[in-house]
Amino acid sequence: MHSFMRFALAAVVCAIAFPALAADKPVLNVYTYDSFAAEWGPGPALKAGFEKTCGCTVEFTTAEDAISTLRKVQLEGTSTKADVVVGLDTATSGDARATGLFAPHGLTLEGLSLPWSDADFVPFDYGYFAYVYNKQKTPNPPKSFEELIALPPSFKIVIEDPRSSTPGLGNVLWVQAAYGHRAPEIWKGLKPHILTMTRGWSEAYGLFLDGQADMVLSYTTSPAYHAIAENDDKYAYAPFTEGFVPQVEVAGLLKSAAEAELGKAFLAFLVTPEAQKVIPTTNWMYPVIDIGADLPAAFGTPPEKVLEIDETTLAANGRAWVDAALAALE
Amino acid sequence: MLLSPRLNSLTLPYRPLRLIAGAGIALAIAGLVVLVLLAILATAAGEPSQGSRVDVWHLVWMTTSQAGLSTILSLIAGVALAWALNRLRFPGRDLIVGLFASAIVTPGLVVAFGLLAVWGRSGWVNQAALALTGQSLEVPLFGLGGILAAHVILDGTFAARILLSRLDAIPEKRLKTGQSLALGPWQRFSVIDWPMLQPSLPGLAAIIFLLAFTSFPVVLLIGGGPANQTLEVAIYAAVRLDFDLRGAVTLALVQIGICSVIILAASACAPVSASTGTSAAPRWRDRGVARAAQWLILAVGVLGFALPLLAILFDGIGPGIVDVTSRPSFWKALATSLGLGTGSALLTLALALGIGMGRAATGSPLLRIGIGAPAYAYLAVPAVVLSLGAFLLVRNAGLMPEAAAPVVVLVANALLSLPFALATLAPPLDAIAERRGRLIRSLGLTGWQQFRAVEWPLIGREAGVVLALAFCFSLGDLGVIALFGTEDFATLPFVMYRALGAYRTNDAATIAALMLCISLAAFVLLPRLFGRLTDASS
Fold first, then answer.
1. Which one, of B403, B488, B338, B328, lies nearest residue A14 by Cα?
2. Do A4 and B224 count as a contact with CB atoms less than 8 A apart?
3. For residue B273, what are the contacts with CB-CB under 8 A and spacing of at least 6?
4. Residue A203 · residue A104 · CB < 8 Å
5. Which residue in A182, B186, B455, B513 has its CB near the most CB atoms, within 10 A?
6. How far apart are CA B508 and CA B494, in angstroms?
7. pLDDT tens, B75-125?
8. Which CATH number fits domain A2-126+247-299: 3.30.70.600, 3.40.190.10, 3.40.50.150, 3.40.50.2000?
9. Top-level class of domain A127-246+304-329
């Protein structure tokens, strides 16, 4: 039992000692998902960049993923210590808005490379859900959901569960946006090709890299990771002619923020060229402003045909779409 | 046998303190579960439940049948493997036994990937088949078959390890008698082995059922789609996607209810006589068909169970190690994991001894169930509900979640290991109470003397197994503090998942291999160490 007590004691001591060290400067509390704040994520560079000018200390508090971050804020309510939440996305921002916990950002966002009119949330990067394949193993990838369905059943894809994963949910929205009432029919057609439906992106992508499946539901930016970080350009995304559904990652300020001004400044910092240059090769998403040559060529150009689903329609129907897709697969 | 008073209370030494300690631990655990659920309900108060989006009974049926099959197959595999391993001696036997023990503490996802590395589309078997015959061998790995295979690897090997230690504990005297009576292989199994194995089976069955019932990432990874799912998935969706806390608690109660039936049934099965002893088995080989069967079982076991684990080592040990081990974050996570592991291993042993001795100190079936059953609680409560409840409890208590995180993880990991620890320790403790109770009474030993002079020497090796098991389990599942916001508090499994979530598959493979090495070392070394310690003192 001694080491147990020592451990508990150490934990308490740490908790008391660390905040005291930073007490001379105001602290901006940022809630975000784990891989954002990880050592190779954008967190460390953004923290350093913002701290140069803000006269403050940025502290990240992480949760497993974006949705957990929101749930954490919801559970804590107005007593949350968070000033800013970073990493919500198009599929969860409606939920977040409905909690009434977020304040308008009050920024005039100009020069963004995507159309933006949201008064509450500031976009900081984006990508498109896409099926990624290995060019050497699949020289002729399907160019639409219907072409995919027409392939022999031995052509396998891995997708994520829409109930537990953002890309999984994005996939449901994608089929819905592209095919409307025909969506269940598309899902039925996909069924023989679905090797499995994993809990999260990590497992699905792992299966794909392991060679268990021919394509995986990921992002249009995934091939850029392999090209840049691993110097390996054999991966590409399948150019589906239906168009692509974007995932825009956003940040928001909480009404209850103790450091509202700092929070607002941080949101503004997120869309500066300095911060945006960090994003592509740390979070592996497109920047929201034109950063010119600082965007590595491997990212290519984002797809042109974009499918949009507005927040109200999503809020009203999202659950039913997910249930219909699952029912068609069962 | 069910619920019948198995022990003559006159033969049991009078140990009120042990009873109180055992009952106290049991009450504390049950209380914790109730508090967790109440904390969530209190937060959900005022918010209407959106109604369940799932056909609960369909899910319950699917989950129950999958878990039932997993349990039966795992037990059969476990008994067969333990039987073969008990009889056979060969170079590398310790490594195989260590690998088997390590399976259950290895994260399920890692084992599933190991399975795929051997049997999957670009796995070893398929590549060998392609090279030899030019035909690819399509092993239908995804679907119910794959789920069962993964569960049998995880749980069947664990059963084998526990059952093997029971067989290894058969007293020499009994083996010599059997040998002199020239018992055939079957008679030997049914007369000598089975009475040793049988008391462990209900507890093992309950654990395996609960693990399979609540298995989540594995089921989703190789389940092949929504047709194969568990109740946990629905609960997960209710909490995260719908934020329907009341719905989540309702589903959790359904799960806890079903699991409780299993737990109570297992706790009610009173172990019959078993005995303990050291593992110095005399050489008594079975001959003929039985011997061939043992080698065959071993071969199948190694191919089916050890290969996927070896694949994990094989995939992970490479040049990537330099890169991974050059990062300070790795060493920090390693230190955290080792600290957590040590702490919760000791806590687990203390709790298991408390419960096991409390249970063994009474002949009343009801009391025995009451003390034993809550030990399984952690396995019955959905992980996402636990993490939510723990977060709310800590906040309601006015503590900073970040500061409380290490303690919460320590307690959670100890509770996670507790059923396994109890399955290992309870049968020998019961056996001692029954067989040596009269002697202990007649000698007038105090409780401490009883522990020191009688129990410890007989259970020392098992205590080593328990410590190894709990240590490895506790290298750090952080699911319970998913909401705590602890960027700096990382353990090895956590760093592994983090790498997997950031395209760094190779890093993840390396960390998985290193974790498996640590588990192997713990399983090979700790039981030996304790075996030696107790041999020296007895």
1. B403
2. no
3. B195, B431, B434, B435
4. no
5. B455
6. 10
7. 999 999 999 999 998 888 888 888 888 887 888 888 888 888 888 888 888
8. 3.40.190.10
9. alpha beta
